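Narrative of accomplishments. A recurring question from our advisory board has been how the design workflow behaves on a single, concrete structure rather than in aggregate. To address it, we present the structure tokens for one chain from the evaluation set, followed by the sequence designed for it. No filtering or post-editing was applied between the two.
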């Protein structure tokens, strides 16, 4: 039963021609996840911790302290501007962290890990948020698909006001209270196509570590 990340599925939908085949082959034949290849892992976890209501944090100094703990040169260069963006996003908003849980969407034998990182009460609006770190621009088509899958994977009893995807690099947020249900027709058709390709691919015996996990956004 294939289990893939939201990133892998959205990239598949956006691909054309033989690139679609390559996307599925990469997902099926990849090795085990290795955190050392996940460039944004530390920052993603730091943002989640910042909003953890069970942690007694000095939020005025939190990100400065976090940056001082980052040792890898590449991260020390790329993290600060993204953190500056996030501070601008926070601004003077009244924000309370809520408990978030992993989420998945299934279609037949295919399971897609959606896993929003944040569930926040922002000025009275309960919003489920996916963090987006990819270099590829967060286009409207891509964000609409992400929001649609997030909405489909969210339990009805969670009582949310909106699902959202926040682009950490451009400091832009896309949100929706009610994603277009017609997009699910496309999503289900693409899931069928993905499964069809997956079932016809054979992988070599050797595997290597990869740079994609369930939360690559």
């Amino acid at each position: 039963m294939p289990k893939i990340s939201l990133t892998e599925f959205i990239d598949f939908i956006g691909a054309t021609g033989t690139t679609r085949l390559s996307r599925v082959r990469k997902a099926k034949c990849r090795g085990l996840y290795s955190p050392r290849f996940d460039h944004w892992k530390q920052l993603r976890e730091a943002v989640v911790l910042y909003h953890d209501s069970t942690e007694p944090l000095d939020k005025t100094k939190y990100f400065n302290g976090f940056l001082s703990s980052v040792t890898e040169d590449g991260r020390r260069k790329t993290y600060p501007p993204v953190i500056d963006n996030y501070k601008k996003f926070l601004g003077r908003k009244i924000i309370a962290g809520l408990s978030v849980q992993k989420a998945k969407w299934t279609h037949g034998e295919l399971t897609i890990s959606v896993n929003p990182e944040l569930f926040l009460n922002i000025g009275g609006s309960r919003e489920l948020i996916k963090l987006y770190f990819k270099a590829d621009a967060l286009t409207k088509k891509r964000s609409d698909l992400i929001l649609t899958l997030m909405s489909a994977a969210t339990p009805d009893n969670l009582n949310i006001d909106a699902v959202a995807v926040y682009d950490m690099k451009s400091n832009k947020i896309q949100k929706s209270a009610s994603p277009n249900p017609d997009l699910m027709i496309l999503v289900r058709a693409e899931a069928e196509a993905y499964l069809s390709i997956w079932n016809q691919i054979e992988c070599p015996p050797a595997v290597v570590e990869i740079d994609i996990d369930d939360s690559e956004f």
